[in-house]
Design brief:
With 257 residues, this protein is of the alpha/beta class. Helix content is 44%, strand content 16%. The strands form 2 sheets. A 6-stranded mixed β-sheet has the order 1-2-3-5-7-10, sandwiched between helices. A 4-stranded mixed β-sheet has the order 4-6-8-9. Bound molecules: hexanoyl-coenzyme A. It catalyses: a (3S)-3-hydroxyacyl-CoA = a (2E)-enoyl-CoA + H2O; a 4-saturated-(3S)-3-hydroxyacyl-CoA = a (3E)-enoyl-CoA + H2O.
Length: 257
């Protein structure tokens, strides 16, 4: 598949995907969603990729779903095609995924960032769910993920008013893991991704599984799940290597990356 709305670049074991519809501030149209999901699915199956970074431009990570594309759709157009249903794939990838956000991450842009495992943002980032101003509501998981990440009070206020949150507030609220000066964001995201990409993949996937279950399981079940998966990691070569490397005072050479 030839991509027209995204750029992909492999850097070592990291795949960098740049959303690239600059004239529309990276608005997420159907073509972009197909191309992005195709690239992500291939990366997920590629042993040479250990971590994925999704980014946009300095001005916009993505200014939302493409309003011009949705404007004249009917209920049956949306329901009949399960519009936005394809985006669920992003949240079920097995490879760790980081959103590196500068500028606007609005509506579907904010929702795409939240589907990633975590968000690193620059000091220019602006997050919001402005769908209410269009007479609709979040449709790519925003009402659910934003609430889980920042709590009901802030999620309600953001979704009711459509106001934007700046980077500092987003960090305080727990929406992003770190704020980085705009010029350094991509380098820092790639460095973080490279660190992750060289960790033991079975352990990474188990950690991700366990953390994601916090949203779906009661605490006692989550703790039990964590313990069982922790036990299972003792069946991996990487556990033997990681612990031997510590005892021998050297860097581990993981085989399952
Ligand atoms: C389509 C968009 C777009 C979008 C921007 N553009 N956002 N096109 N869909 N979501 C286009 C503009 O039409 C314009 O194209 C060009 O990008 C530059 O945008 P401007 O508005 O001129 O830029 P600026 O004045 O800097 O304002 C930036 C902005 C504003 C504040 C981000 O563009 C904006 O408010 N965009 C919409 C944000 C939004 O409502 N997102 C949520 C979408 S709904 P032209 O050709 O006119 O120059 C959603 C979920 C839907 O995501 C779920 C429910 C179904």
């Amino acid at each position: 598949m030839t991509y027209e709305t995204i750029l992909t670049e492999q850097k070592g074991r990291v795949l960098l995907i740049t959303l690239n519809r600059p004239k529309a501030l990276n608005a997420l149209n159907t073509q972009l969603s197909h191309e992005l999901i195709d690239a992500l699915t291939k990366a997920d199956d590629d042993d040479g990729v250990g971590c994925i970074v999704i980014t946009g431009s300095q001005k916009a990570f993505a200014a939302g779903a493409d309003i011009k594309e949705m404007q004249n759709q009917s209920y049956m157009d949306m329901h009949g095609t399960d519009f936005f249903g394809q985006w669920d794939k992003v949240a079920t990838l097995r490879k760790p995924t980081i959103a590196a956000v500068s500028g606007y991450a609005l509506g579907g842009g904010c929702e795409l960032a939240m589907m990633c495992d975590f968000i690193l943002c620059s000091d220019s980032a602006r997050f919001g769910q402005p769908e209410i101003k269009l007479g609709v509501m979040p449709g790519m998981g925003g009402s659910q993920r934003l609430t889980r990440l920042i709590g009901q009070a802030k999620a309600m206020e953001m979704c009711f008013t459509g106001r934007m949150m700046d980077a500092e507030e987003a960090e305080r609220a727990g929406l992003v893991s770190r704020v980085i000066p705009a010029d350094d964001l991509l380098d820092e995201a790639l460095k973080t991704a490279d660190t992750i990409a060289n960790m033991a993949l079975p352990a990474l996937m188990s950690i991700r599984d366990a953390i994601r279950r916090t949203q779906e399981m009661p605490l006692t079940e989550g703790v039990r799940f964590e313990r069982r998966v922790f036990h299972a990691l003792f069946a991996t070569d990487d556990q033997k290597e990681g612990m031997a490397a510590f005892v021998e005072k050297r860097e581990p050479q993981f085989t399952h990356k």
